[in-house]
Amino acid sequence: MTGFGEARERTASAEVAVEARAVNNRHLKVTVRGTDPYPLLESEVEKVARRHVRRGALHLHIRVDRRAPAADLALNTAALRGYLRQVREACEAAGTPEYAAPLLAGVLALPGVAPEGSRAAVTPPEDEWPAVERAVEAALAKLDGMRRDEGRAMAAELLALADGVRADLGRVRDLLPGVTAAYRQRLLERVRQAVAEAGVAVGPDHLIRELALFADRSDVAEEVTRLAAHLDQFATLVRSGGEGAGRKLEFVVQEMGREANTLGSKAGDVAVSRQVVEIKAALERIRELIQNVE
Questions:
Q1: Closest CA to 11 of 65, 92, 54
Q2: Does residue 134 form part of some domain?
Q3: Residue 229's domain spans which residues?
Q4: Residues with Cβ < 8 Å from 260, sequence gap 6 or more?
Q5: In Å, what is the CA distance from 8 to each residue of 23, 49, 67, 148?
Q6: Among candidates 60, 53, 5, 62, which has minimal Cα distance to 31?
């Protein structure tokens, strides 16, 4: 499910801002971007994320604005004077003193003049990670709230789709008694035609045996009952939720699809097949939705 959350934290030496965005994905995939070194600490951030999110492509942007101590901001004046002198002398020696001013504009970027601070750090300061962790937790809590709102809307849609499957299944039940009767009528017509053309006598026991075989092959009462039971289980899981509900729903929908396939292949009737197609279409829509349910 999709969602967005943001949070801020402050320490004595830094301000932390976290943005969390989630889009649909069957599995959990966490991506971390932002201020170093947090993209390198993706596994640690993912441990925090798993407390809130189990499915989805989660993108976290962690920005840390560090306030360096005054001592860290001191320039290396000896190096600065040396660079300035060397630039001027080089330009005068080359006969291009007019180039000195543009070149001196970038002298602060030369190595050793300005302090580099913690840009190359591979671990955050001791007091910074707890603030980042709190901000990630807070952002994910807001994201989780948005996902819960979406989940309630999704649950309503899933139940509506299940009710549609139940209605189609009810129409299949109504059609089943007529399937055997229609087959019997078609069989009698074919037999009468064959007798008229070939002059062969066919006893009633032959017709009864053929009808019995057809009724046995096309008996889908067990599949209809199991599919109805799966629908009840599906609705219960959607309403109750709980740990691992997404995986359980996937299994139940898989079983419903298996029963629908068997129902369509055994019924041998066009009207029943049309209803089975509707059932399969609804199950496919349900399958797409529940891939994002935790």
A1: 65
A2: no
A3: 148-290
A4: 227, 276, 279, 280, 283
A5: 22, 16, 16, 22
A6: 60
Place of tokens 């959990």: 28
58 is a domain residue: no
What value does the mean pLDDT of the chain take? 79
Residue 129 burial (10 A CB sphere; 0-12, 13-18, 19+): middle
- 107-159 pLDDT tens trace: 766 776 666 554 434 567 777 889 999 999 999 999 988 888 878 888 899 99
CA–CA gap between residue 165 and residue 163 (Å, rounded): 5
179-231 per-position pLDDT tens digit: 666 655 555 566 556 555 655 555 566 555 655 555 445 567 778 888 999 99
State percent of the chain over pLDDT 90: 22
Q: What is the pTM of this model?
A: 0.56
CA distance 213 to 173: 20
Q: Are 269 and 175 in contact (CB under 8 A)?
A: yes
Is there a single domain that holds both residue 162 and residue 257? yes
Q: What is the rounded distance in angstroms from the CA atom of residue 120 to the CA atom of residue 236?
A: 54
Q: Are residues 89 and 158 in the same domain?
A: no
What is the CATH classification number for the domain harbouring 240? 1.20.120
* Other CB atoms within 10 Å distance of the CB of residue 116: 10
DSSP 79-130: HHHHHHHHHHHHHHHTT-GGGHHHHHTTGGGSTTTS--TTTT-SS--TTHHH
Using the 3D structure, point to which of 84, 109, 134 is the last residue of a domain.
Answer: 109
Is residue 23 assigned to a domain?
no
Q: What is the pLDDT of residues 48-59, one digit of tens each?
A: 998 888 878 899
Structure tokens at 64: 């840390």
Name which of 107, 171, 108, 128 is nearest 34 in CA terms: 128
